[in-house]
Amino acid sequence: MDVPGHLQLLPDQLPDPWEPSVLALGQVDCPNEDEVLRLAAVSFPALTPCRLEVCLLVQEDRLVGRPGDPPDADGLAGLLTVPTGGAGPVALSGRPWAWAYPLSGPPGRVGYAVVSAAAEPAPECRVAIARLARQTGAALVRADLHRSEAECAARMRAVNVELAMVNDRLRHSVAELEQSRETLTTLTAVAAAGAGERGIAAALHAMTGYPVIVEDQFGNPLAWAGPDGPQPYPRQSPRRRVELLAEAGRGSVPLRDHDRLITPVQCRDRVLGLLALVDPERRAGRPESFALQHAAVVLGIELAHQRSLAETELRLRGDLVGDLLAGSHTESAISRAAALGHDLHGPHHVLAVRWPGAHDEDAVVLAVQRAVRLCDMDALVARQSDAVVVVTAPPESRGAAHRWGELHSALSEILPSTRGSIGVGEVHDWPAELPRSYSEALHALAMVEWSRGCGVMTFEELGVLRLLFTSQDKHGVEQFVRDWLGVLIDYDRARSTELVTTLSRYYGCGGNYDATAAALHVHRSTLRYRLQRIRDLTGHDLGAADCRLDLEIATQAWQILRGSH
After folding, report:
1. Residue 513: is its pLDDT beyond 60?
2. Is the dihedral of CA 290, 291, 292, 295 positive or negative?
3. Domain count, the chain
4. Are residues 210 and 280 in the same domain?
5. Which pLDDT score is estimated for 16?
6. Under 8 Å between Cβ of 420 and 426
């Protein structure tokens, strides 16, 4: 409904008493909509005979305004269709006169202010009411602008905070990528320079500041970088070592092992060792873990390359050693050995090594190679049958007596077991005589395994047995054993008994019943029965001096022949 034309007065037609107050409301610059409405609710009854009942905000379709009971809004719904600038009566229960005035602002219609009075106001008052409504609308528009600006500013601050966080993460990611690039570049350069595991460990120590240790698959230290390492180096049990390698191999990040941060060094699925940062205070973070993992990758390539070269050299040495021990191609052996860096001129002899408990046969060969280097031995190392063979010059040719126990100790430190055995053949002057030294080494190896279980024995230590095995007629040795023990050997084979072993242990224990029974893990009465059975079958008096020596030698020869087959 339009306002009658006689009510639409110009501003300068307002009565003087109202104009300053009405203009004051129009100049309100309050960022709070509720404060504007509170001021309007006070201003209407103060300046006019009306009071503000309610404000209907068109854009939000909600009623706001004077506190108290909500008004009867039945007549307000139609106001939403009134053209901009329109006004009209509103039916409010208990109010003789009620009128809706538009709350107009710069964007257009804001809504309506519903006022009421005890009687219809005079025309000049209605002009003031209309202007007061428009000024209220303008104040509400400014409050809405303030609110929008505040919300926009808040959103901008939130966006700026989020952008700052994104920028921080981006800077952190760029720094990590740059550090990763420098890590890879440094490690690749070290590996390309041929610095080996020591150079890689030193580079990782320089990058992280933590002590670095490189271990082989058995837990032996290959390289240390940083302050002085522990002496002696702690060794893990073989079982714990296998469990640790398996646990480290299952994870995608380095594993915490007490005061160390470790990661496996491997090529494909083959574990070659461990790389570790010593971090007792547990301060190593993502950069150190990243450097550790990439150093392990580079180290894995390096160790795999070294192992490939070693295996190739082993094949070449194996071919040469195989020819030497077979007695063939001896005329070219010296030049072939020289190509491999070994001088075959002068006396040499052969060592035979067997080391039970090592799961990887190639690892035993590599361990023997490392041990002979630690013992300052110039040697050819290769696998032959079920033993590792070492062809080396005698210690005297180097001007120093060598204790073969040092070689056994070195191998015990490298390999996970100490139950290995070494047999040492006699020295011979020419390569063509090395097959004989090899045979002697196998005899000594068989004897030490039978008599001691492990350790070192030279062929010279066999004593009188040397008279049998230095003979070129091996058939004669076998015939000697057959003459004295044949009936027992046949009996054992036919009935799955152990009479020859019992006799051998009996002489090995010096004829002591208790010691022999304990060695055989049998009762004393069982031992007595077996010895009586031996007397019955052979017809020999086991304690008689005229046959005891021959029987003892025969049992030892039987053990050596059995171990060398």
Report:
1. yes
2. positive
3. 4
4. yes
5. 44
6. no
Element (H, E) at 345: none
Residue 73: other Cβ atoms inside 10 A? 14
Rounded Cα–Cα distance for residues 350 and 391 (Å): 5
Instruction: Name the residue among 419, 404, 360 with its Cα closest to residue 216.
Output: 360
Residue 314 — pLDDT band, cuts 50, 70, 90?
low
Higher-confidence residue of 78 and 115: namely 115
pTM above 0.70, yes or no: no
- DSSP structure string for 432-490: GGHHHHHHHHHHHHHHHHHHTSSEEEEGGGGTTHHHHHTSS-HHHHHHHHHHHHHHHHH
One domain for residues 85 and 149: yes
N-to-C CA span, the chain: 124
- pLDDT over 90 at 298, yes or no: no
Tokens matching residue 170 = 């981006």
Beta strands in 303-401 (DSSP E): 349-354, 379-384, 387-392
Is the distance from CB of 348 to CB of 434 less than 8 angstroms?
Answer: yes
pLDDT over threshold 60, residue 473: no
Q: What is the pLDDT of residue 538?
A: 87
For residues 341 and 401, membership in a common domain is answered with yes
Proportion of the chain above pLDDT 90, given as a percent: 7
- Of 92, 175, 168, 102, nearest to 135 by C-alpha is 102
Return the residue matching tokens 């006799």. 503
Q: Is the pLDDT of residue 82 over 50?
A: no
The set of long-range contacts for 149-156, using a CB threshold of 8 Å and a minimum separation of 24, is 150/31
